[in-house]
Structure to design on (648 residues):
């Protein structure tokens, strides 16, 4: 019969990763600068541009690189003294390619399971299970060299999950994937926590994709903590609406008319995003809540104009980096990022 | 994502159906570092003979293994047929591997890069070191695996010789002693050749380059040292011959077996190092094996993650 075993892992607030003024200095660079984090169970996004210190942090958390200063603990284990115990309970998926092309996914993952300490029979069973869960079926018997990028990413993920860790570090798992592959990977990451009960620390330089996937997002830059908050906080403060309206005989410049009308309703609009497709016809405004959508709809309808589009725009990381006034920041909205989140 | 949904269960339906049983955790034993090291060792040892890999990668090691064993089988056949009291080759057990050194060098050149270059080239190393296994475990497992593979390659013909000599009733005690000395010789040779091969192969992720470099170091050094020894011998300074022999792996092993293990020397003039010089040879070999291990650990500390 079918038995669905959903593991309940987290009772009460538990700290999965904790760092205390963690610093890592190399002769010429400071990779981490007094970073203090407190990450609970669930899916946590670690966002930062290239060289922000994400990989260095993962290395320290795996107990592979000593910190210059400060302390860190993973699953309650000290990284400086209990590295081996941490690595037994944690999975790691690197950013770069790491798969030999001439073996099959099954052989490779079985080998990696044994390297994690699983006895031969368990290694084989867990490999079959894990590959199925990440969505690799018949192709798992073929050499990895013939796989697509998306399939390779799944094998990389499978080897990180095969020993049933308590926590996985996923370094840029969506790198190199097309939009569909990206969405599938993000869905899979979500399931790692919701279905498998494994906490996730996932890095990315795209805040947008992590917002959709994570419970909590940590933003680092230059080795410093810029922001750490739950994703609901992020979306509340960062929702920007882009609207585009048609012109009519009564209102030859529909955009200007709407702007004036919205100002009358107390909704402030910003200058159009320079360089956006259709710049000059797009109004950006900050949505303070559900009611803003209604105001826009009613205003446009009241003027007798057509609403071509109304979509959410998310902020780029750089805006979070600089923090401060969200409204002025919206002006540098990038078309690329915007398009990714369009209705 | 091809998320599997539980198939609709038809009441009283087919029992053979595979259901999605959801994610199952693992609560079984985790056997830790020593087990992982052993697993890596056996995987690498099998890999050194192409087992568990493609048919193509089995060809060369199996062929070289056959080439190593055939002369021994022929010697045994001749000895049995002629009812000889000694094997056709004098000091056969200790000298066999040295006579066949070209085949052994070729094997090291082919298999040392296979053992380590793949992990470097495809960047699989971080996956190992993000697990309980440590740099030292990785190096030990790879080192031991290649040394064991070489011991099989060089030891198998000795077993053929020994079995043949017993079949021909050549005198049990005498043959057993020589067989034992031969095993010690090939053990030292295996450790030394494995160490040198791995250090060279671990420098480069390119397999072809690794093969060329290993051949260069093993074969060319032997050629150069033998030539120098021959020149020194011809010039009448035969005292220098044993000291020159310190500079190539093959002559090092040759010196040890002739000085300490009752073998006959292949040096020009047939004069091997004295017992005292033999001890120096042994120390140099031990030092080289330790140095190779140290270099490998240092190398992998750098490339890990």
């Amino acid at each position: 019969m079918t038995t669905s075993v959903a593991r309940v892992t987290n009772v009460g607030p538990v700290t999965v990763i904790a760092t205390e003024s963690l610093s890592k200095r190399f002769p010429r660079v400071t990779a981490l600068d007094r970073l203090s984090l407190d990450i609970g169970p669930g899916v946590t996004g670690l966002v930062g541009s290239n060289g922000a210190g994400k990989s260095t942090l993962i290395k320290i958390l795996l107990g592979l690189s000593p910190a210059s200063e400060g302390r860190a603990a993973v699953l309650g284990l000290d990284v400086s003294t209990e590295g081996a115990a941490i690595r037994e309970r944690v999975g790691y998926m690197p950013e770069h390619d790491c798969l030999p092309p001439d073996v099959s996914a099954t052989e490779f993952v079985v080998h990696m399971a044994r390297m994690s300490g699983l006895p031969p029979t368990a290694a084989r069973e867990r490999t079959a299970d894990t590959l199925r869960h990440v969505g690799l079926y018949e192709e798992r018997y073929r050499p990895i060299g013939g796989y697509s990028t998306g399939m390779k990413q799944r094998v990389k993920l499978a080897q990180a999950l095969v020993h049933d860790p308590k926590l996985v570090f996923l370094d840029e798992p969506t790198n190199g994937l097309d939009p569909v592959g990206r969405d599938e990977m993000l869905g899979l990451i979500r399931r790692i926590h919701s279905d498998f009960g494994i906490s996730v620390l996932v890095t990315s330089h795209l805040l947008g994709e992590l917002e959709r996937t994570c419970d909590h997002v940590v933003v680092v830059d230059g080795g410093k903590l810029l922001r750490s908050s739950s994703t609901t906080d992020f979306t509340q403060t960062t929702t920007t609406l882009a609207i585009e309206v048609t012109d009519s005989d009564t209102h030859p410049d529909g955009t200007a008319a709407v702007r004036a009308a919205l100002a009358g309703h107390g909704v402030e609009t910003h200058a159009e995003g320079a360089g956006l497709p259709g710049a000059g016809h797009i109004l950006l405004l900050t949505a303070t809540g559900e009611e803003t959508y209604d105001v826009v709809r009613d205003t446009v309808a009241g003027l007798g104009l057509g609403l071509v589009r109304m979509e959410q725009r998310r902020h780029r990381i750089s805006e979070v980096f600089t923090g401060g006034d969200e409204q002025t920041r919206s002006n540098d909205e990038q078309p690329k990022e915007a398009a990714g989140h369009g209705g | 994502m091809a998320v599997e949904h539980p198939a609709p269960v038809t009441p009283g339906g087919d029992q053979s159906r595979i259901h999605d049983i959801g994610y199952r955790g693992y609560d079984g034993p985790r056997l830790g570092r020593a087990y992982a090291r052993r697993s890596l060792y056996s995987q690498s040892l099998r890999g050194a003979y192409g087992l568990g890999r493609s048919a193509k990668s089995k060809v060369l090691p199996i062929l070289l293994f056959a080439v190593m064993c055939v002369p021994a089988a022929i010697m045994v056949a001749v000895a049995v047929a002629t009812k000889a009291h000694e094997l056709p080759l004098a000091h056969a057990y200790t000298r066999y591997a040295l006579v066949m050194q070209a085949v052994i060098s070729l094997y090291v050149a082919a298999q040392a890069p296979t053992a380590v270059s793949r992990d470097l080239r495809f960047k699989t190393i971080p996956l190992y070191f993000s697990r309980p296994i440590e740099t030292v475990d990785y190096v030990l497992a790879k080192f031991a695996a290649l040394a064991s593979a070489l011991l099989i390659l060089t030891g198998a013909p000795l077993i053929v010789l020994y079995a043949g000599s017993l079949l021909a009733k050549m005198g049990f005690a005498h043959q057993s002693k020589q067989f034992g000395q031969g095993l010690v010789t090939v053990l030292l040779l295996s450790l030394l050749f494995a160490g040198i091969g791995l250090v060279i192969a671990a420098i480069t992720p390119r397999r072809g380059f690794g093969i060329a470099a290993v051949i260069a170091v093993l074969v060319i050094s032997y050629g150069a040292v033998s030539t120098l020894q021959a020149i020194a011998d011809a010039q009448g300074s035969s005292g220098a011959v044993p000291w020159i022999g310190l500079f190539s792996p093959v002559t090092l092993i040759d010196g040890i077996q002739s000085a300490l293990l009752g073998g006959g020397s292949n040096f020009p003039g047939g004069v091997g190092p004295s017992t005292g010089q033999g001890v120096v040879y042994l120390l140099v070999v031990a030092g080289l094996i330790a140095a190779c291990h140290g270099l490998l650990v240092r190398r992998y500390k750098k490339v890990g993650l």
Notes: The interface with chain A takes residues 1-4, 6, 9, 19-26, 28-33, 35-36, 39-40, 43, 52-54, 118-119, 122-124, 126-134, 304-305 of chain B (CB under 8 Å). The first helix of chain B runs from residue 32 to 48. The radius of gyration of chain B is 24 Å.
